[in-house]
Design a protein that fits this description.
Length: 174
């Protein structure tokens, strides 16, 4: 009978260390936008704050991702990315949903858009529309986002096809 340890592939310590170091670099890069409030609260000049905030939001995460790929190598990065997608896939909306769920999702998706479009006009007719608190608008944004999730994956495909020039509508036979 063969020894169990002989059959298992041995992961070199150097590769494991690179994978861990690359993962730390990747996480630090993705968390760098959380430093923006500290930069804004600092006593630096407005130009310095603007440059640093922009880099923390759009430059540093990408740079750290590239650095992480360099450290752990493409196979290590693909391994980490595969694990992350496998974990996050549980939270993705299902592709097809029931008719009732689809209708509810359409209402949740459409009402915040309609309120946003009509609100400037309604404010002239009903003054209370001018004095709505910020939480009301945050609530509408949350309803919009949840509505997208309720609509399911097929709706995401429909929505993304709006932004693709060569997409054609095909009718399914009933």
């Amino acid at each position: 009978m063969a020894d169990k340890h002989i059959l298992e592939p041995i992961v070199p310590q150097k590769s494991k260390t690179k994978l861990i170091l690359g993962s730390v670099i990747l996480v630090v890069g993705f968390l760098s936008p959380l430093l923006i409030p500290l930069v804004v609260a600092s006593k630096w000049s407005a130009a310095t704050k603007s440059i640093l905030s922009g880099l923390l939001a759009f430059g540093i995460p990408e740079l750290f991702m590239l650095l992480a790929i360099i450290v752990m190598g493409k196979p290590g990065y693909e391994y980490i990315k595969g694990k992350a997608y496998k974990y996050l896939k549980r939270f993705a909306p299902p592709d097809t949903v029931s008719l009732a769920r689809y209708r509810l999702g359409l209402i949740m998706f459409s009402v915040p858009i309609l309120v946003g479009i009509l609100e400037p006009y309604l404010a002239h007719l009903a003054p209370f529309f001018r004095d709505l608190p910020l939480l009301f608008y945050i609530g509408l944004d949350m309803i919009f986002i949840v509505g997208l999730l309720v609509l399911g994956g097929d709706f995401w495909d429909k929505l993304s096809s709006l932004f693709k020039h060569n997409m054609k509508v095909t009718k399914m036979p009933k």
